[in-house]
Design a protein that fits this description.
Shape: rod-shaped
Distance between the termini: 9 Å
Largest sheet: 4 strands, antiparallel
Number of strands: 6
Order of helices and strands: HHEHHHHEHEHEEHHHEHH
Helix content: 55-70%
Number of helices: 13
Amino acid sequence: MKQLSFNVPDRSTGDFITLRDVVEPIWEARKEFLAIVLLVMACVGAWVGLNVKYRSEGFFQFGGPIPIPAPKEKNEKNPEKEPDAGITLSDFKRYGASFSTSERFFEYVHDKKLESTEGIDDLRRVIARDGISRLIEPIYPFTKLDAKDLMEQPKGSSNNVIALRIKYDASSPLVAQQMVGLIGNYAMDSIVFLIYSDQLRFKHDEISTKIIRLDNTIIENKTRLDELARRSEELKQIIARNPGSEGQAARQVVTITEENAHYLPPATQLLTAEVQAAEAKEKIYHAKREQEQNKLYLEYFDRAKAILNGTKSGETVLRGLEEAKLAVFKDKNMDDDIVKEVYNKITVDNRSAINVYLDKSRFIAGPTLSDKPTVRMPLAMALALIAGLIIAVLFVFIRKWIRQNMSSRPTPTQVNGL
């Protein structure tokens, strides 16, 4: 039986492949050849047309140190040095773990009532499939290239995350722009929500504990005050029974050693007891004052926690704190310095937070509105033409090879004759 084979011309016998050998099969199958090329180009053109994407980019800058440091933290090492702007790498990883989850994004969309926004479903699918990390790139003051150029990082500086570079591809330029803006606001909103989730719960427990400790301080000083009052009364009786005790050698023993003894006159002891009593009264006054202020803070944080439990948006929590403050102080005596001081401190904290988290943290570049798709149609059609030509050539020569081998296969009559 004759084997199927494809005869390749042998150069040693002078049987070369000529241009005619290549062109002739293509010309004979020119209709099929042209149809394949056009079909490939049509398919690629249709796919590009249906899946055309426009890219928008934005640069979202953090407006200051995040989270806002407490006064003690600001002055702990260097009171004159301003805290570094941005977010430390450890904090950013923790915040990123929060806003990178699809569940957190769905909660934000639901809370802000964005379900009907154009393009939101595509963004939800991208986040659910790939996460948000490929859409957000953290920006540092110093890159590896900067470190190479500078040789060493300037003293007194940090490498906190100072901004986010955000990019997103969508079916239209406007949708891409809107989604980049939404991603930036969503990331900042998630950071604020996590900060206040931690702070409000921590502050609430801290103040509750502090009120109990202040109560113990008041009790201890009242007990001390009663003790000093009894002692003062006894000393007055001693002085009354001994009118000239100030000038006499009789003294109350303070310390005694083998060599000598030290005495203190009763009048001096009475004066000391009265001074100590005054100090105890002052401690009770300050403890009561601080306790009253902490009770106001506790009422405020109770309302703030209620806002936190009712929403999944950091911005909603932050803006709701002002309403919580007004609700706490609406029936308080604002002429009282104790009340006024707490009111002012809460006001300053809320305004500082809104300034840093919502006003200064913003897009300083973009989101851009691109009029050019990510894949250019002329380039796509040129590549489609090349791919179509390759596929058509392969089709022609494979078909020719199959026909040659089919024609050289022995017929059943030839096989029976053998």
